[in-house]
Amino acid sequence: MFRLRQAVALAGLTALEALRQPVCLLLILVSSTLTALLPFLILHRFGEDGKLVRDSAFALHAVFGVFVAGYAATTALSRELESGTALVVLSKPVSRDCFFLSKFVGVVGVVGVFSLCAGLTTLLAERVAERFVNRDGVAGFVTDGQTGALLIAVMVAACVVGAVVNYKRQRPFGSVTTTALLGGLLLCVVLASCFDRTGQWAPFATRLDWRLVPVSVLITLGLVVMSSLAMTLSTVVGMVPTLASCSAVFALGMMSDYLFGLHATESLWAGLLYSAVPNWQHFWVCDQLNAGGSITGGYMGLAALYALVYASALLCLGTVLFRQKDV
Amino acid sequence: MQEKANSTILEVVQLTKVFCDFWRRPKVRAVDGLNLSVRRGEIFGLLGPNGSGKSTTIKLLLGLLHPTEGSIRLMEGRPGDVAVHRRIGYLPEVSHLYRYLTPRETLLFYGRLFDLSARERRARTDQLLEMTGLTAAADRAVGEFSKGMARRLGLAQALLNAPELLILDEPTSGLDPMGCRQVKEMLRALADQGTTILLTSHLLADVEHICDRVVIMYNGKPRAAGNLRDLLATPDRMTLDLPVLDAATTRRLLQTIRETCDCEAELSRPSMNLEEFFVRVVREATNGASAAPEAATPRMAAFLEK
Predict the structure, then answer these.
(1) FRET label pair with B88: which of A77, A170, A188, A295, CA 20 to 30 Å apart?
(2) Quick check: pTM over 0.90?
(3) Which residue out of A79, A91, A324 would a mutagenesis test of the B interface target, given it has the greatest number of B Cβ atoms within 10 Å?
(4) Please, what CATH class does the domain formed by B2-234 belong to?
């Protein structure tokens, strides 16, 4: 029970410290703002606005997520080792395993907050994207400008709230703005669920494409794997090599089926690399949505199991490396 | 009870630490065959110039570094044991603190690591903030702190668990003379109450004031060790302490001593050291009152008064 309380304290502090840092907020805000602006930025429409917005938004979620995971992990571990805060914590009755694994949980918390913001923004941005409407005297392509304006207003309002609270009560801008953004996006989702694209009252939960949620969850699972990789790398190298390695593994993971999978049966090396590199195609299922399908619970379970096994293996390696490390 | 008081709390035998490069080739022999033992309730000084291996030794004692050779016995346990760390307080050379936390959040966080109840955490946090003069800055981010304020907070986190063994790496570095005096008075008071203190410093005047025993290190090796009074004594000289006498009496006295002992005798006027003078000036300037937190006499936190 004592260990659990320690782990909760360490994980909470890791998440809090990361969310209070300007870089984390910057990544969350830039990713959310770009996603919110996608319906207005896409010019080549051909009636596929929804698809383009979905694909671009999920790509932003994955790419920015890799950087959030890498940054949070290196801040939590290699930076703490460099700055010496890890030294003080480890001089307390905290085992190295508990320290390392709690830090990972904290990083997953940060990735979770980022993914929640990205997921909610994607849900809303997809709703904003132009669609053909033929109802109640309205016929033609309609962009949901009201929801779009509301979404942009939430971003601005979150920054204003962060600035005011920082000025008045000297609370950290980063964490307050992130909390305000998250609250605002949730409120926005509730409002968007109550009105249709033309601004008319509509039954709750019928006006958003909820099929996007499992896709977001799968990307988050991929980011959890990247977090465990970043944590493990952070035990031996600093921030820049960790971020570079995570980006490289992400790129390889996206192309894994083509680079290694096609030759896995013929070449031992290709087979080994195909097994060793986390296959991001398992977490990237946008095409399934575009084909009109949905993500089944069984597939979600298998993907979660794959992420769990992969993350566990990496964390075991990280724990062993951290035990040997001179702090 | 007496047996416990005289028992050894820390025993180091032939401790050696060699740092290696990326390819595992030996690079620096930071500590080389160190032997030392620290008794319960004493203030033990680990002295030496920069790079002599003091901080490395402390990290080895805490299990933060793995020794290349030798053994460490710490409170009937090994360095790195969670049970041992519950009874230790540690202040590193630089008060490594989380920049985005406030002092209150910092102490509450460390209180959680010691599994203190919520009530106890809050009470100890308030007491230590008051004791270190940080109450007014309790809700400011630590990243905005001066070096001295960060040092005070570092000291507060080291005392949070009312440790049996307090390990302090350069405890007075970054503190002004009043702060140094406060820390020294507090360490002496803690030692009087039974806390064992192991400290490193290259401010020798500080060590001289408070340490019972010392070991002097150079290039990772112990060069001198023992009771401070014995090490500093000059056995062939003595001082006669007298009130100020008139010139004629003084001359007669010196003459008598020279004739009687057939030796050279010199007269000198004792002077206070600069720190004592500084403290007196500041206390007079504030009329003895605690005008600033730095000028306040440290009030020991209730939980540290055993």
Answers:
(1) A77
(2) no
(3) A91
(4) alpha beta
